[in-house]
Design brief:
Four copies of one chain form a homotetramer.
Chain A: H1 6-22, H2 24-33, E1 39-44, H3 51-54, E2 62-67, H4 83-94, E3 99-105, H5 109-114, H6 127-132, H7 136-143, H8 150-169, H9 173-181, E4 185-191, E5 198-201, E6 208-210
Amino acid sequence: MQSFPRELLDGYASFMAGRYARERDRYRALAQDGQKPSTMIIACCDSRAAPETIFDRGPGELFVLRNVANLVPTYQPDGGQHGTSAAIEFAVNSLKVENIVVLGHGRCGGIHAALSPSAEPLDEGDFIGKWMSLLAPVAEQVGGNSFMTAAERQTALERISIRNSLNNLMTFPYVERMVREGTLALHGAWFDISAGELWVMDADSGDFLRAETVDEPEL
Amino acid sequence: MQSFPRELLDGYASFMAGRYARERDRYRALAQDGQKPSTMIIACCDSRAAPETIFDRGPGELFVLRNVANLVPTYQPDGGQHGTSAAIEFAVNSLKVENIVVLGHGRCGGIHAALSPSAEPLDEGDFIGKWMSLLAPVAEQVGGNSFMTAAERQTALERISIRNSLNNLMTFPYVERMVREGTLALHGAWFDISAGELWVMDADSGDFLRAETVDEPEL
Amino acid sequence: MQSFPRELLDGYASFMAGRYARERDRYRALAQDGQKPSTMIIACCDSRAAPETIFDRGPGELFVLRNVANLVPTYQPDGGQHGTSAAIEFAVNSLKVENIVVLGHGRCGGIHAALSPSAEPLDEGDFIGKWMSLLAPVAEQVGGNSFMTAAERQTALERISIRNSLNNLMTFPYVERMVREGTLALHGAWFDISAGELWVMDADSGDFLRAETVDEPEL
Amino acid sequence: MQSFPRELLDGYASFMAGRYARERDRYRALAQDGQKPSTMIIACCDSRAAPETIFDRGPGELFVLRNVANLVPTYQPDGGQHGTSAAIEFAVNSLKVENIVVLGHGRCGGIHAALSPSAEPLDEGDFIGKWMSLLAPVAEQVGGNSFMTAAERQTALERISIRNSLNNLMTFPYVERMVREGTLALHGAWFDISAGELWVMDADSGDFLRAETVDEPEL
């Protein structure tokens, strides 16, 4: 039979000897009392952009949805099996998270695919093509800008996509209501990978600013 | 405006001073050369079960999809926007991962919902209900077993669901072909949270065994 | 009568007591032997982006043209009085500079004007409007992107404009010939002002990279 | 590819470690609040006569136009792309500078060209010849003065040219009006290079006087 990957077993042994040993009580309490994360992160599947790593967070702190290119569709209560919407519904209505962060990142393969609409599909099912078509209108406009370099178009769409996901989140009636009432806050962020830079979205302008320059919360 | 969560900014500062500082070259190479993870993990959004934490893995190693209850639907090339299938297509056909691990865990809220079909939906859209209906046939049978305790039914369905996801993975033609050809391997695992136990699925029997008891690969 | 600005007289006194006193011999040699700068900089008039300051260069090192938004028109030997073209002709054919650097910068007022074509002219002569019309085709395309924020459009056009100036430089027959022969090199750079970041253009891709990450020259 | 000049990268590193490190707050404020220079300098491209160096001024203080021989054309609202006029329009009408200084200097190559009308053009486009023709009437008279030495003719034309630029500035209607109203002042200055002498023009007589001898502003 196929063996369970050795590096994962080794990694698990390291986890047990390290983090788990140190945080045993926390894990037991989290099992006993249930999870109460205050923040949901919507991130990409990319192996270089794990939210727990970038934000250095431990067990119980982040409820994390990860799909290709951290996309959020609009609210579509049509009876379909919408995995992303299910996670949002659960986080907001059951876990009562106080924050939702859409976390994008540089060199995103999904965004690259969205900017290459004429590329051959990966497979005849073309799930990536269909999934990234959620961005089609914006991807078309950005992709058509012949004066920007390929890398500039990519970064531009990565950031536009984060704003797009945040806008789509607001189409969920309970998200809109709780944001209005001040019990839920939406945030955007973009991780650079290479230099490790984190850029945080300014909610007013939609611009992304280096995390180091973000002021303390106003009281 | 709403401030970016302070604990995330602090966590990011800690990441930069710690892991990033130590692994700067690795991040730069991962940006330059692209990601080449050998393993995809399909895990749950639960805040207590982050794969990178449980397997103690660093940047570039795990391509991670996370949805509610780590479900995989069957292959449905119907033109719909299937986020989970898109991630699988990308991991297998573009990244050429060698392993896919479906990682479930104890006390899963999604599984709990699947076992409570008569509970009131979280919202009129009922995305959780629709999403967990992917498990409806098995959930119905387990849920109807009045001789098991509630906790036993929960654990049973968590494990059945992992096997179900693995079976559904095999409905993707390329997954089936690559598994047959030996270039892709599928694995199941279940994390206990409380005691930190990892249980690994035996591919032949479908049983879950403590990771510590899993033999070295047979030669 | 109007007095010569006091701060300039004070600054001059400071220059004489400082830099001039230290570099007296250099100034005398530069007067005696003439200037032999190896680099021409085409920069903006902006008070925050003086090339000698950003590159910490002394007398005799940089031949500096500064106009609004560091624009270079195409080669137009039509008998008109083209100030920018005159400076380029002098630098290349008389001074024999080896490098031309087009240096743009963030928050450029000229670029802002190019993105606000319907704004009221500053004056009925509308010299700014006419001057920035050199960028009209690209400004139109960038300005029409409704998915980018105003700041993103601004940065995008600042960088596009640098590439545009470099392309226009290549329409000067002698520039083209000397670049081809390897006796003249063209470069782009963009200065951020706020964080003091300098971004250097990669000649192959046209992308801008942080100066700190630029490799040593290949030998 | 062509590498960015090493001495500029080194100079930038020196700037960041020195001036930027000391004036970080000033740069940030200048980015945030925009530039508000009170003085525009119209200077020459010559590498030996950078205004920021001669007047020892820092970021945000001087709005600097530099062309060959610090020429100002007359006001010509003919729809042409006049770079120098655009900078003047922007400085006066948008930045509301209070002073404009035309700064000439000794051993100016452009002035030398203007005094050598029969010299072969640098290139068939002859942009320098065309540009310096702005001075043709005065250059002809000075050049024809056989009783002055070549050096005397050069210095004479350098100073005449400054007065000429100041006169041409007064053909801009808003410059004329603001000077009349006392909200804008025009000044001339000439820098010697060799001995580092700065000569300031007396507005009444047009004579140039050593800066050290210029009186304090009259009260």
